[in-house]
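#lab-general

N.A. 3:47 PM
ok so I finally got the sequence cleaned up, no stray characters, all 189 residues accounted for. can someone with queue access submit it? mine expired

B.Y. 3:52 PM
send it over

N.A. 3:53 PM
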Amino acid sequence: MQCDLKSVEAPKKIVDETVKAFGPHIDILVNNAAIISGQFAIDIFPEHFDEVFHTNVRAPLFMVQAVLPHWRRPGRIINISSIAARQGFPSTGTYAASKSALEAYTRTWAAELGHDGTTVNAVNPGPVKSEMLDQVDPAIIEPQLKATLVEQRTGRPEEIAEIVAFLAESRSSWVSGQCISASGGYHTY
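B.Y. 4:20 PM
back already:
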């Protein structure tokens, strides 16, 4: 289903439709929706800030709240962050700040929900072929590609999906509160 995650009602609608279609239990939540920011600090206006933070930070929080009543424990929560959370790129400050906030939620939710075996992690993609990357100034992308250890290329969506899939499996039961760089070695932490 499609929803505007800036709306506070959207998470409940998504969860209601999910349990209606697939049954009363939810095992995995992947918070993947995001809005990129291309505004320099001097140009950021309140509506822009709200749009980015409501989608990138508030929506994941409300998705977790909406999912928990249906949670089959132990579950998996995977947040899609970005290397931007730890790297300053011109004109991406609002986006980077929102992804840093999502990383903070990742660590906090891991502490709050881990008592029953639930894990919470973040995946931090580098540049990945996507509609979002198409919106980024090539002057920001080119130095990233040159610094990417694996073939100096953009990632493929399926490469990120494989990491998310691993974090959703029981094999990852001892990984929680982590932010995993999926950047072809652009970021090594």
